[in-house]
Structure formats: C-alpha cells, structure tokens
Amino acid sequence: MKRILIIGATSAIATACARLWAAQGSEFFLVARNNEKLEQTAADLRVRGAKAVTLHSMDATDVAAHPAMLESCLSALQQIDIALIAHGTLPDQKACELDAGVALQEFANNGTSVIALLTHLANQFEIQHCGTLAVISSVAGDRGRPSNYLYGTAKAAVSTFCEGLRARLFKVGVHVIDIKPGFVDTPMTQGLPLPAPLVAKPEQVALRIVKGIELKVGTLYAPGFWALIMLIIRSIPQPIFKRLNL
C-alpha cells in the first residue's frame, strides 16, 4: 500500500494518476482549492479501491499555508511514499507582457509556489530517508519560445530546482522525478489550436508517470516522443530560432 500526497489533486493528469494508484489500494491525502471537486475526486477513488482518502483545501500559491498542510498530511498518513505536485495554470502570454503584476502572479502559480512546496517536502523526505517527489513541469521549460515564455520560464526554474534537489536527496535514498508533459487534452488546453496528432489523453500521460515513478526515472517526457521533439527544438541555432513563430 502506498501513502500518497497529491497537490493539485483535481487536475486531469493528477486524477488519472490517482485512479491508477487507487486500484492498488493506496491511501491518499488530496489537496486542491475547490472543495466540491475534491469531494467528487475522493468519492471516485474510494469506488476504485482507495484504502482511505483525506481531503485538504488549500490554494497552493498561499505559501504560508504549506507547513500546516504538510503537518495535516503527516498526521493522516504518518509517512509519505509519493508526493505528486500537479497544480498550475496556463497563462495568457500577451497579458503577461502587458502587466508585470499578471506576469509575477503566473510565475508564482507555476514556479515559486512549486519551489516552496518542494522545499518543505524535501526536508520531510530527508528525515524519512525514503520516498519519491514527483513534479509536473512541462516541455515548455526546455526553451524560451515567444508564444509562452513566461510559462516556460517558470517551468524551467522548477526543472532546474528539481535537478539540484535530485542530487541532494539521492544521497539519503529519496528520488525526485521531473515530469514534462507535452500537449494534453485537459480543461486547461481546451480551445487552443493544438496539432491533434501530438495531443495526448490524461490517461496516457498518467500511465507513463506511474511507471516512471516505479522505475525511478529522473526526467520523464510524456508521451515519450516529446524527448525527441524537444531535442530538435533545443538544437536549433539561436539566429534561426529567434525568427521562428513557435
């Protein structure tokens, strides 16, 4: 039985992962802002085989609330085997360009709030000497593209933080996995003009995440073909790259 903390538990990818873990009889501590959606998610997981589900309402950008959330989680689970951080937003790049306040808020949503959570969780996992910290970042963090560079900057910060944290925690038996999904069919991407062949279902991504955690993969592209796509994009010389509309 796994004891699992999920932050951003009502997101499509997180829910799909939780369903897979529920079928294994796992125990959950679910964190999200929307109480109604949390209740619906909990009911779904109980039907699917979850041993126990505890709910906690929190806005992940409220960094002052993180310690109390972690304390409640440990009270419920005693120990965390897997912590999945899955919250975030998809900002309007143009709005971020026009308003520094919007840009900073979106960076907090996708970057600093994640780093704050990882800092608290890393210290707990270091005490445990076991467990996996799993973070949903994005392929957008691999290179600054003009269409979403605020979002990409936040995700790049998270990925760099995870790389350093992985090296730190490896020495005490804790694993850190940086998950980089590409285009996924979720409410966050509805209405966007995405290339259909490259859009994955949350269930596909979840299968890869759960397997990647089991195998202790360091950086996980989901689906896997994004590793090749991003290798090509990272290899484009800057004089050419800056002329592209990506």
UniProtKB/TrEMBL annotation:
SUPFAM superfamilies, A to Z: NAD(P)-binding Rossmann-fold domains (SSF51735)
Signal peptide: 1-22
Molecular-function GO terms, alphabetical: oxidoreductase activity
GO annotations of cellular component type: membrane
A Pfam entry, by short name: adh_short
Key words of the record: Oxidoreductase, Signal
PANTHER family: DEHYDROGENASE/REDUCTASE SDR FAMILY MEMBER 7B, DEHYDROGENASE_REDUCTASE SDR FAMILY MEMBER 7B
Protein family membership: Belongs to the short-chain dehydrogenases/reductases (SDR) family.
This protein's name: Short-chain dehydrogenase
